[in-house]
Amino acid sequence: GVQSLGQAMKALALGTSAILLASPLVGTDEASSNSKQDASSRSGLAQSVASQGSVKGLIGYWMRGLLAGMQDLGVPNITALHKALDDGDLRLECRAPFSSARA
After folding, report:
1. CA distance 49 to 96
2. Strand pairing partners for 2?
3. pTM of the full predicted structure?
């Protein structure tokens, strides 16, 4: 699953219609205590996960972020984003980590 708004925006821009939120939902009121414990112990360290409140606020935050990302690309919604990709109007660039290093 995606862990950040940037990853979600990239996935949608590359043509996906849905994204899986796993880690971002850990700690919400709706997450079971088992999923909170499993997610916190994946790294091998037992740790508690701070409560983030209801998932409703988190989803609102993600939706506003995705809409802002689409606005930056000049498209109003996911359908238009996919159409821009299909029509060749949306161009994506892949950068290597060292490409921004100054010589």
Report:
1. 33
2. 21
3. 0.70
Residue 54 near residue 30, CB atoms below 8 Å: yes
Nearest one of 5, 13, 22, 10 to 66, comparing CA atoms: 5
CA dist 71 and 74 (Å) reads 5
Q: Strand runs (DSSP E) across the chain, as ranges?
A: none
DSSP secondary structure letter of residue 25: G
Per-residue pLDDT for 7 more than 80? yes
More confident residue, 82 or 23: 82
Whether residue 49 contacts residue 22, with contact meaning beta carbons closer than 8 Å, is answered with: no
Residue entry with tokens 């899986």: 20
Question: What pLDDT is recorded for position 57?
Answer: 87
